[in-house]
Amino acid sequence: MKSGGALSIWFFTGICLGVNGLLIFANGIYELIHPPDQQVVLGNLHANVWWGGILLVFGLLYSIRFSPARERKRLSGSA
Amino acid sequence: MNPALLFFSSSTLVHLSTVDLVIIVFYFALVLSIGLYLKGQANTGEDFFMAGREMTAWVAGLAFLSANLGSLELMGWAGNSYKYGILAAHWYWIGAIPAMLFLALVMMPFYHICKTHSVPGYLKLRFGPGAQAISSISFAFMTVLMSGINMYAMAVVMRVVLGWDLNFSILISSLTVAAYVALGGLRSAIFNEVLQFFLIWAGALLIPILGLVEAGGWSGLQAKILQNLTELHVANPGSYTHLWSTLGSFSTNPMGINWVGIVFGLGAVISMGYWTTDFLVVQRVLSAKDLRSAELAPIIGAAFKMCVPFIVILPGLLGLALLRDPQGHLLRLVPADVAWSAQGQAQGLHGYDEVLPLMLARYCGPGLLGLGITALIAGFMSGMAGNVSAFTTVWTYDIYATLINKNASDDSKVRMGRWVTVIGVVISIGTAYLVMQAQSIMDYVQALFSFFIAPLFGTVILGMLWKRATPAGGWAGLLAGTLSSVGMYAWVKVDPGAVRYVALSMDAQDQAQNMFRALWCCLICVIVTVVVSYLTKPKPDSELKDLVYGLTPIPKTGHVSMIHSPVFWGVVVAVIFIILQIVFW
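Above: the input entities. Below: the structure tokens describing the complete assembly.
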């Protein structure tokens, strides 16, 4: 999307999901090594590891695909 | 005691860890950064109020859906599905999909070709300033109320989950929304709505996934609900998991409604009115860059709308099946006024609208909890921002520039827009406190819809499809429809027995009453418009060009392949919609 200048909404979306995914994934790994005293229901499924991982990958893909450098190149190419 | 500590109570559902707080703070920093980044691109009226009319179909479509996917969706409908069962899904399917497709394929060309800034703006072109004034004033009133509802809902989540004081939460959310909408206008609101769309799915999707694992799949969930409700001696326990088969009579389902109310009250009036004439959602589609994008945007929204029950309705049903108190007894949620009473607080009761946070706390540990809370906050703030940006546009174009300063320059409109954004947020804060008196958030909202949206739909659709409708007819019909709806609501409040006339049954619950009230007031609007139109002089055809079917050359979207055709995707969505009705019959 052009509106927004060099930074597209999809780039912001990628950053948002990527940062959140990284934090959740890292916390999940930490909990695997140091299990908490109180688990949530179905805590044995370690949702924070796989869900955080999915968000991280999704966020990275969007951040790279819609990065400002790529957008500038795309806009200059289409001009 | 340090006054700051008074913001936090000792009894909280969960305690946030450091990683949760980092996720929440990061979200606030990101939305404010987006507002600052977009400030330089909101210098003209077209930029500030219509996002430059350059959004792609995907951005406009996701914003179109997200503008409606605020706190009301997440908490209100999860609470309603706990209260009414799967019947609440009607508000996502028959109560949304047909109307969204109708907007895309039938009404969008008119909105697009007349280049209106708002729905009241269309009424001005079609019926004159009288109908515009009624519509814009009632819409402005409704949006600030809705914004207040979003603030209140966010404050409830913060209170339930984190123990934060309601006033503190309202202050934080309102300051943030006022800042980013005043800076970037509609474009800023749309950016944050798209961001919120992804956050909501990322934060809420785990609840139904893990819930179904715990319940043993859909059949296990049905069996547990039946067992629990039978144990609690609830009437018609089997009806909580059937969409249509219990709608033959008012008394065989928990909502006290029959199929007439759902199909005609909800599907044909409330839903059509909301999705095709509520400027809050229509404004997002008007920002699309061309007609094809404007037609595709509601269809994209409809496709995702069909999936939303998975993260909203299902958690409510899972709450019915799985929630237990610390002693292992079935946890029965209660109406908000009971939960909030001194006795309810002493007993640790929870309201219907708290089912989603309760399920969130059940499955989400550190990190995931922060994401879930952030998703809820994003939904609430997006709901506020959507209402405030729509309020700002309608106030500036349809009240200020039409009734107060007819010669307002573009610069003064943008200045007015920024100031009205702040004022709208301040008024919303006041309305947030009004909402605290309502039994259930969504019941309150549906009452508002039936006041303003249902008659508006009658006026707009007659205006678009019937060239004989006159300005006097449109004005009188809209006024009669609105007043009759408020009148019926007041009648039932004064005399509860009147519900047998308004909703055709004493079994009708609040939602059922709203549906029938909407149906009657829309019919009154149509009848009054037709009668008055036949008694008054119609506009000449030359003045109705580009406003009425039959007198408007419908612009073509250009030759596109089937895969890019809005009609093709509209048919795909319609087929999936029908399949869902059969599966959950």
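Note for the figure: Chain A has a mean pLDDT of 86.
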